[in-house]
Amino acid sequence: MSSSTLTREQSAKAFDGHQYVYSHESSTVGCKMKFGVYVPEKAEKEQVPLLIFLSGLTCTEQNFITKSGVQSLASKYGFIVANPDTSPRGCKIEGDSEKWNFGESAGYYVDATESKWSKNYRMFSYINEEFYDLIVKNFNVNPKKIGILGHSMGGHGALISFFKRPGQYQSVSAFAPICNASASEWGINAYTNFFGQDETLWKQYDATELVASYNGPKPHAPVLVDQGSDDSFKDNQLFPERFIVACKTASFPLELREQAGYDHGYYFIMTFLEDHFKYHKNEFEHAQ
Question: How far is CA 25 from the centre of its chain?
C-alpha cells in the first residue's frame, strides 16, 4: 500500500477482516477526502471483487459503515467494500453549507460546470477516476469484478456511473435511488447551481434520461433496485415509476422491487443488503 497517498485514520477488526477509514489529498476535488474500506481476510491471499457504495444526502463516509452491518456480508462473500464521502469539504464556497440537500454532504456525484462550483464539485470524476483507481491500486482488487451500488442520492450516483462509463462496472444496484434527478426538487435546485439553466446538462446526470442512450454491456440479470413503499420521498423526489418506463422503452433489464412497509432509512438497507451482495456475486460469476 502506498503510504504517500493514503493516511489511515481508523482501523478496527470486524469478523475476519478490518474496517478502515483513510484520507488522502484529492487532486480532482481539491481537498482532503475520507473514505471507508472493508478488507476481508481473503484479500490477503488473492484478488477479490470490489463493491463501491455511494451514500445519500447528509452522509459522510461514516454512515454506511456504522449503520448497515456491511462488514459481516463483506466477510461472508469475500468482497472489498469501499465507500467514499458524498462531497468535497472545507472548500469554503459561499452557499455550500446552508442547506442539507445541496453542497457539503450533497454533491450529487456530478461534475459541475458553473465556475463557482466547477473547481471542487467534480464528484463524478472523483468517483469514477481518482477514487476508483486509488482503490484498485492500493487494495487486492480483481479488476474484472467491480460493482457499484448506492442509496438515494448515492443510488442515483451508482446508476449514472454505470450508464456513463459503459463496461467500467460489471454490475450495478440501488436502494431508493433518485431516478429522475433533473425533474425532482432536490435535483433542480442542485443542478441549477452546478450547471446553470442549461437543462441538457442536467439530463447528462439523470438515470431516467441516460438509459435511453446506453449502448454498453447489459447485465446478465436485470439490475436490482429496491424501493420502500412507505418511503416519504418516493412520489415527490425519487420517481421510480419513471425509471421503470424508461428502462422498458430502452429494453434495458430492470427488477425494481417495492418492499411493503419500508421507509427510506438504514433499517431498509440493512434488511435487503444481502440480496444485493447475492446479485453482484452472480454478475461477477458471469464476468469475462
Answer: 20
Q: CB-based burial of residue 103 (10 Å sphere; 0-12 exposed, 13-18 middle, 19+ buried)?
A: buried
Residue-wise pLDDT for 84-98, tens only, equals 999 999 999 999 999
How crowded is the C-beta side of 165, counted as CA atoms within 13 Å?
20
How deeply is 58 buried, as exposed, middle or buried, from its count of CB atoms within 10 A (0-12, 13-18, 19+)?
Answer: middle
C-alpha–C-alpha distance, residues 257 and 279, integer Å:
13
User: Could you write out the DSSP letters of every residue in 266-288?
Assistant: HHHHHHHHHHHHHHHHHHHHT--
Residues with a catalytic annotation lie at 152, 231, 264
Backbone angles phi, psi at 199, to 5 degrees: -70, -15
Q: Considering the entire predicted model, what is its pTM? A: 0.97
From 3.10.450.50, 3.20.20.70, 3.60.150.10, 3.40.50.1820, which CATH number describes the 7-285 domain? 3.40.50.1820
- Each residue's pLDDT tens digit, 144-182: 999 999 999 999 999 999 999 999 999 999 999 999 999
Q: Which helix (H) or strand (E) holds 77?
A: helix 70-77
pLDDT per residue as tens digits for the range 246-273: 999 999 999 999 999 999 999 999 999 9
CA distance 192 to 181: 12
Residue 239 Rama label (left phi>0; alpha psi -120 to 50; beta): left
pLDDT digits (tens, 9 = 90+) for 98-146: 999 999 999 999 999 999 999 999 999 999 999 999 999 999 999 999 9
Largest CA distance in the chain: 51
